[in-house]
Design goal:
4-stranded antiparallel beta sheet; globular
Length: 228
């Protein structure tokens, strides 16, 4: 279909993870110096097992063959959506609490697997962040395929309560926007849309689910990227 993103060897590549931001931003971007950090270098993460044990809720394992949780193993290809929410609380500009929650939506499972750090002390999220980064790599192709299929069959994909058409038009709550002319902003967990007119209503589109996929599509389809 015309307007769909180009793929390398038939594969649309996952974005890299930015490790040095308060909110880890998977936005595919081109830095001011010209370096493109939107794709993996081609190296794959090791297949060693990653384990995260919660205070209450059991142990999550990422094994080579799939996700192991509460006695069940789910193949990575069954992950339909991947959510991430993070926050930091500071006192007198000193960070004191970090919170990170992942939600892994799996085909055939009524509720997502929810994993979060326990007491939330600052700098206690690194091991859970590694879990997320591994999941991004292992599940990106399967998750992005669902959005591309919508584009191919319907001419749009649905995300955050809005419809994104291949033409660049966005429909949300009885309003229409054009990505090529609207003012765009990226908050940690929202895409902000506003018409060029001064009195236009600003709309926020939730971006806490499949953010890596969504931002990759924005760049590949319409050349839209954001700075950290």
């Amino acid at each position: 279909m015309k307007g769909l993103p180009a793929r390398r060897n038939g594969v649309l590549e996952a974005p890299r993870c930015a490790h040095n931001a308060a909110y880890v931003n998977f936005a595919p971007l081109r830095t001011p110096g010209g370096g493109d950090r939107s794709e993996f270098s081609g190296k794959t993460m090791t297949d060693e097992t990653l384990t995260y044990t919660m205070w209450f809720g059991g142990t999550l394992e990422l094994r080579p063959e799939g996700i192991r949780y509460k006695g069940e193993t789910h193949q990575y290809s069954t992950v339909t959506h991947l959510g991430r929410y993070a926050s930091r609380t500071s006192f007198n500009f000193i960070p004191v609490i970090d919170f990170l929650r992942l939600r892994i939506h799996i085909q055939g499972r009524e509720k997502p697997i929810t994993v979060q750090n326990g007491i939330g002390l600052v700098f206690t999220t690194s091991s859970l962040q590694k879990i997320y980064e591994r999941l991004v790599e292992k599940t990106f192709q399967h998750r992005v395929r669902a959005y591309l299929k919508q584009l191919e069959t319907k001419g749009f994909f649905e995300y955050g309560g809005a419809r994104f058409f291949s033409s660049g038009e966005v429909e949300m709550k009885n309003h229409k926007y054009d990505l090529r002319t609207s003012k765009l902003g990226l908050e940690p967990f929202h895409l902000v849309l506003k018409d060029p007119s001064f009195f236009a209503i600003k709309r926020k589109i939730s971006a806490d689910i499949d953010k890596d996929v969504f931002l990759t599509l924005l760049k590949k389809l319409w050349g839209i990227s954001f700075k950290d």
